[in-house]
Design goal:
Strand content: 5-15%
Number of strands: 7
Structural class: alpha/beta
CATH superfamily: NAD(P)-binding Rossmann-like Domain
Number of domains: 1
Helix content: 40-55%
CATH topology: Rossmann fold
CATH architecture: 3-Layer(aba) Sandwich
Radius of gyration: 18 Å
Bound molecules: nicotinamide-adenine-dinucleotide
Amino acid sequence: MSDRSSLSDKHALVCGASAGIGRATALALAAQGARVTVLARRADRLEALIPALLDAGAASARALTADLDDRADLAQRIESLLALAGPVHILINNAGGPPGGPLLQATEEALLTALGRHLLASHLLAQKLVPGMVEAGWGRIVNIISTSVYEPIAGLGVSNTTRGAMASWAKSLANELPPGVTINNVLPGFTDTERLSSLAEARATSAGSTADAIRADWLAGVPEGRLIRAEETAAAVAFLVSPAAGAIRGVSLQVDGGRMRSI
Ligand code: NAD
């Protein structure tokens, strides 16, 4: 990982890259010299990220404005990307998490939207991009999921359900992909991003509390005693996509400051 050109001949596509863990991951892969394509809905945020990616060390940087909820459009945009920039060797599946609330009250639409944005978009991207990885004899897929894969989180039933599906999808693919092409998951804990701030605000409103009190409550269960920085999560992703991690396949790596209790 100290070799800052370890990904210099690789093209990475990072989804949900306009903020939080996705943005930090794009910068981490740029620092390893990759060609980086950043995907999200907000063109202005992506364009603002391009100079930062080049400064960090990216061989080149490209913005791909797309909505993971619109898979027909996404498929076309990915075809255009492949025609323009060549095969993608590293795919980071990542998107905003579903809203919270009691599972029993969740609508069918809420479940379908979450499964579409996470599972179906990842599936589409894998179907489009894995052939290029296979041809290159080298590929990496990392899914940003959640510790709820192992320990469902209270009040996040739609998210828990979707994360479980993602983890099973990834483990199934890990058995199908050929040698040299790996898939793994990173499971963030409480990570200091816009997503976490909005969750804290929502919890505070429903509990008649403050966001600071909610955060303090969360951190009481984290042995590391602090929020995780998105850069720390990105460092785990960067390791999993590195050439050195070629034997790591089908794992879920939590980056949660020790919050998960199960082994
Ligand atoms: P975030 O909300 O800060 O960033 C999400 C990114 O995804 C943004 O760039 C956003 O624009 C993009 N995005 C959202 N919907 C999209 C769509 N339909 N199409 C394209 N792009 C879309 O989130 P984050 O905190 O960085 O979290 C990333 C993932 O990790 C999420 O799935 C989140 O639920 C999960 N996670 C986060 C935490 C945490 O504490 N932050 C904890 C556990 C799991």
